[in-house]
Amino acid sequence: MRPSVNLDFSDFAPHDQPLMPKSQGIQMTAINPTLELRLNPNRIAAIMDSAIISSSEVVNFHFNALSNADLGIPAEPVEATFRLRGPQMDAAQRRAMHENWILAKSFQELLRAVRHALEQAHIFSSLLTKKHSIKSASTLADFLKPFEKRASALTFPELIDAVNEKLNPKLEFAESYRSQRHRV
Predict the structure, then answer these.
(1) Residue-level pLDDT at 34
(2) Is this structure's pTM higher than 0.85?
């Protein structure tokens, strides 16, 4: 029987421990040990869930705070040694500026989460498409590093194409976007 190490990929721990024991009584010369990674596809969904929950919480909080704020005058800096002066704004213009900034940051965080989820999907699909060999003294972080590097080096469109290429059925990103755009 071949020794097998089971790692649950959902928690990625421990990253700094060797994937295979050094020799703890196992005769490594006569046996090819195998490593079994259990991938948790729910992790990809959890990345997006966390971003959506955080973004909606922050937007709701700040929009509620803005509804009660006196935006007729600019906010005074706390303990600032200098003050920047911008164009004069009334309360409606200042409210719109705050809302636009908050929404822009929220969308930026959502896009960052989409990117991270796609990178994780790319890593998963790369791990699942062929057998991989690994040195016995390697850590999980060492093993995953080239996959992570490859995924992070792709542009956003390349990453979407690379992930979609391995899916069956294919996701229709452009069509989904068009259908969402018409709902708003």
Answers:
(1) 66
(2) no
